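Minutes, project check-in

Agenda point 3 was the complex the collaborators sent over. CS summarized: two entities, 626 residues total, and the question is how they sit relative to each other. Sequences were read into the notes so everyone works from the same version.
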Amino acid sequence: MTAKAKRKSFAINQSLADGLSQTIHSANSYASEMRYEAVPLSKIEVDPENPRDLALGFTDLPQGPEKTDPLYGQKKEEIKSLASLAHSITQEGVLNAVIVFKHNDKYRLIAGERRCLASLIAGKEFINAKILDQRPDKLKKTVIQWIENIERADLSLWEKLNNLKSVMGFYEEEKGEKLNSTSLSEFLGCSRVQANYYLAAMAGDENVQDAIQKGTLNSLERAAYIARIESDETRELALKLSETVTNFKELKELIAKNDNFEKAQPKKSKQGRKPSKVNLGQTKATKVVETIIQLFTEKEVGSKYKEQFQQYDLKNPSDASAAFGRLIKILETL
Amino acid sequence: MKVIVSATNKGGDGKTKLSILMSEYFSGVKGLKGLGIDLDPQCNFSSRFLDMELDPNDRHGKVPPFHPDYDPSDPEDEGWDGRSSIANIFFGEPVIPYPTHVDGFEIAPASSSKLMDAEAVTKHDVAEKVHKQLKLFTGLDELKSQYDYVVIDTPPAKGPLTISAFKASSHLLIPSQMEQYSVHGIYGMLQLWKQETYSRSSDNPIKLIGIIPNQCRDINLHSDFRQSLMETPGIAEYMLPCILKKRSAYAESDVEGAVPKTIFDYPKRDKAKIEATEACEEIYRRVFENDS
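CS then shared the predicted structure for the full assembly.
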């Protein structure tokens, strides 16, 4: 008996197949949004409806502001602050295209003012731009700016969260519903974990917000972690430690030790009563949790905790479990 | 007017063959008025329809023959050397298409050295002097009023001439052998297509007609690669349902003086004719009928 010869088989390498698929997908989904080309800097203008944070204008460059300009000093400082970006543009060009919309024969900026000014300082005549054919609505503009800003290393966590609050505000205004972690992740194109971090950080108490604003808490993941700490004392300790402990793993270990210390203390119990655990049961119907939380937060006693539950997608079983756990913790403190 | 570019990154995969088949089918069978543009310095597309001559400036290259309308005694033709090629657009000179043996089909042929000269510009000048030129040419009102379609054959590279073709086109066809390096060539062209798409407004897209398996043999490699592509999400809808097999008929029809001249004049039951007709009919449907 002879062995049967095996049929030779071949397949396209998976990463090549993925690359082909992704390229087609990118082109098809991009085609309806913005087009991308080099536009003359002389045709770019700021959008009067977009508040600016720089005094320096396009007409001040490349020659510099007039000495008689009342904002001369501020503009000179701004030029200095753009020097390093201008140098990088001279060497590498603008790495991320600015975003504009067509306005008559000009282009109005949605995002990228600094890149434009720095390009003028660098002596460039053209800049790569993503072009929308018309002014976007408020929501779209805010989302575009959010997506632009999220990549910027020079923006603080506070600035990013404020941007996100605007996005969420406009979303609620337009769609009539709030964003939860699932819808936020879909809307922004980020992971659910990331979306949860944002929501947790924004829901943090006054002290957490203060730390973010001051810049002592400038990492999103860290801010979310600290914001979620149940115990007020532990959270306060975490905020203090965060100022000096730069390693996140070390910070978590120190916080956990402190939490265990607290848990190890004998609980005060009412005279004559023995502590006992209560089994609150299980259910597949996430609506049960939704209803309980809704009823609680509608009451005066629960209304101040409403925002804490907004980060959860209560239709998702694991989110609903976490939300219920939080409810129990809150109720235990009441 | 539809402007169709046949392009892939790898030589020998069938760009010129598909350009020829489309031209002969759309004009010879469907009766449309068409213009062929040959941007490949190899001049194979041009050689199909014209008796190209050796290029005095480049012993490996070719130039178009004298134009049939050229009359050296006519004062109107004074200053004209009697030849015209698509390369003229890169030098600000007029282009005079040549008639061909296919009714309703004319060609703006290549000129080897002139096309190579056109590509030899600086990075600073290439956008203005090369990339935009073919789009300006195909945008001319007199062209749009004369032709229903334009087919552009390109060199096997992502150089300035190919980019120029993309910028002028409304549709892209990618022929490919079902083999490793050819499929890599598809990826290169899709990148170029994506880049071009990003620079267009939504009302002026460059549509991907699809990928047509070419020179297929009855071997596992070809069938497995084709199957692999058809099973990849996002690509499947762009794989044309027809294939072109490796047949001597295609090479035979390219021979000077071959009778019949075109595959579409072969006997009804000829396998090459059947599959070429099926392929061109599918392309025709995607370009002219389902073009929403």
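Noted in discussion: Residues 72 and 78 of chain B are 7 Å apart (CA to CA).
Follow-up: revisit at the next meeting once the mutant set is ready.
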